[in-house]
Amino acid sequence: MSSPPRIAIVGGGPGGLTVGLLLHRRGILSTIFELRQKPTDEELAKPSGMLDLHKESGLAAIRECELYDQFLQLTGECSEAQKVSDKDGNILHQDEGELSDRPEISRHALTKLLSSHLPAENIKYGYKLYSATSISTPNGTETELDFGPNGKQRFDLVIGADGAWSQVRNMLSDIKPQYAGIQNITTTFRHVSTKYPHLAELVGPGSFAALAFRHGVMSQRGPQDVARIFIFLTTPDEHLPVSAGLAGRAASDAKELLLNNDEFLGRFGPKIRELVSVACDEETNDNPGAALDIRPLYTLPIGVSWEHKPNATLIGDAAHLMCPWAGEGVNLAMWDSLLLAHAIIKAYHAAKDQGASFQSELDPLMKEFEDEMFVRTKEKAKETYSNGQMMFGEDGATAFRDFFRAIYSQNEGKETLEAIRAA
Q1: Cα separation, 62 vs 55, whole angstroms
Q2: Entry's InterPro entries (predicted)?
Q3: I need a labelling partner for 125 at 20 to 30 A (CA). Which of 181, 234, 340, 421 fits?
Q4: What is the pTM of this model?
Q5: How far apart (Å, rounded) are the C-alpha atoms in residues 266 and 257?
């Protein structure tokens, strides 16, 4: 290997930051290009969605980044407890998370944890990727990234961690995200325990889901005694925000349409309606002048793949976008990052030791990584789709309750079997 490989990571979310940090820990230089401007500490202190990291994926990556102890100090604002209610707020299932081993961390805290251990010069903020193009050269295949006003740059390897509408994916495949049939509204209100103790009691200290009529009102607790309320509306109308007159309206203004229309939440009971009403009002009070945060959800087809190229690959949502019904998004992204980093590190040292080209050493390893990823994520996509069908049926609450009962019954059966064997 005559010179160090030029490696670009497009996207500075958890997946991109993880692979960048894993390479940095092994002395391999990469550059992360992030569309957004560098977030301030004040911005990262604001409430954000909670992420539960799984042992075999997200937590495994955190451990290999040598950040597990620091990670644990940032968990705890949202417990692993679960509550499921019907349309009227009657609790059908609740647990304390005793069968879970998936600690929760806010997205902002995870972003700060990962980025703070990378040299500042490794992350280029404010870089919008306009296109990625494969170019043949006498020394192999390169990828040219066009950053518009920030110029063009060429790399030996480009890792697309640039999310649902990935520009890097466009170089590898013509597959596009498809509308999942669900709209997502996000609201946040702080100090729920002191201002609204009865609502804090309803949603509990962890995750909460009220499901009915193919819709859902869900909650996650978070930093600053926050309750983050997500409203999921099943509809074939991809452009519902515009067609229903919700686009551009403040959350406090939009709540009347949401709560009084039987096609939305009009058939939910007073407890759930109050939760939504308060959340909408608090969201507007906290962000005056801001429009309702309503967005359609998108997915990539189950089993998505692409023809392998030696100079570019994809991880996370860019590779296998799916809905959040199994909590796999960030975990799959970090799992991808972990396995891809292993391949890059192995190729780097093999090329260095044998005087070979990095790309020739990486090519079979990266194809092996992609083939494994296609199989692994296809199974997770099937699980996610199945969970969505269960939760967003006409009586999603009962189905979700039965799901948890089956898990606990299975666990009790295992404990009984173990006790019999021990005796």
Answers
A1: 10
A2: FAD-bd, FAD/NAD-bd_sf
A3: 340
A4: 0.92
A5: 9
